[in-house]
Amino acid sequence: MPLEWEELVTQLDTHLPREAWAQTLIGIAALILTALFVQWVVARVVLLLAHRVLVLSGRGDWDKALQRRRAYQNLWYAVPFAVVSMGIGLVPHVERAVTIVGRLAHAGAWICVFVAFSGVLSAWQDTYSATTRAQTRSIKGYIQIGKLILMAVCTVLVLSILIDRSPLWMISGLGALSAVLLLVFKDTLLSLVASTQLTSNDMLRIGDWIEMPQSNADGFVKDIALHTVKVQNWDNTVTTVPTYKLFSESYRNYRHMFESGGRRIKRTIRIDAASVRFLNEDEAQRLMRFRLLHDYLQAKTHDIAQANQTMGELASVPANRRRLTNIGTLRAYALAYLKQNPEVRQDMAMMVRMMEPTSEGIPVEVYCFTAVTAWVEYERIQGDIFDHLLAILPELGLRLYQQPSGADIGAMGTHLREGALQAALAVEGGRPGLAAPAERGLTDAKMPR
Question: Where is the Mechanosensitive ion channel MscS domain (predicted)?
Fold first, then answer.
């Protein structure tokens, strides 16, 4: 020790009280004041310097995020613990408490440091969320992984300080508990792998519309975290799906549909099979006045006339002749209507096909893609298309198939009863009693005996 320090200690020794408890109190007070002074210096110098550097470098958002997440304050709180840990041995007459207080203060300092680093990670998440890239990709899972690693390291380090053992000894002891740890943290490990794979392979983004019936999820992804993915459904409810399920189970992602700029229409019109028939020449000429059918009918009638002419006398039989059908004309009309519709994508698949007839009529399917993907506009375009096609059916002599309802059956029964009553009155004529057999439509041979 230098001579000056020895003289200073000697002078202080002459002014200190001789009682042990008084010296201890003075030593504790001096230690506390020193800790607070060093804390003030760190807060005013180091942390202020960091604040200035971030603001001057154009990282003001980082500075605000660090203040909001209390990263500065937690690092500030670590300073008094560190001073107490290093200076507790200088307090007189506290030899029994030096070890315990020193370890606790040392552990407290490290806890504050790790909490400050956790605040830095949270600040990173806040600043990233304000960018446009965060609208599609989330780093929340990585942030949570980082916090778990910090928590694990902090736990091992603090326990090693408290029990005065090497951290490597603590880590080696965890190897024997690996099976238990794997069982306890099974969901966390699965979510860790799934979250990494989902993000790195670009399988899921915030804002994606996904459909996962087994989890009752059908809506837009609102949040991607380490353990869960939140999906806001169409009824504004929120479904929370475990992250590992989105990696191990199948689901439908509509992102590529939105990116393509076209949304598919695949819907059928069921035609009453009894209304399907051939078109005669007058009907074909009348339909030729329709702008969408003019070119089709003109080309078809020319081809049919040439084909029938080559048959010769066989064309005199109606069954041998080629003729137009009203349902085939409907398909041609629907396809022409789609091709001239500016709200339908012309560069994507488009067709109108007749499917296998069933007991519920003949399905005619319309397959095309709209030029917009927004839900409301898509439904409007789809509705306009089928409104028009349903309204054009009577012009082609076709009827839409519809199963009879109770009202239809009731109306039919009433109609039959009224018809029977009118027939009975007509048969009886003007006289009461039994009508003549001929009037009843019965011959003598069929008269009941």
Answer: 187-256
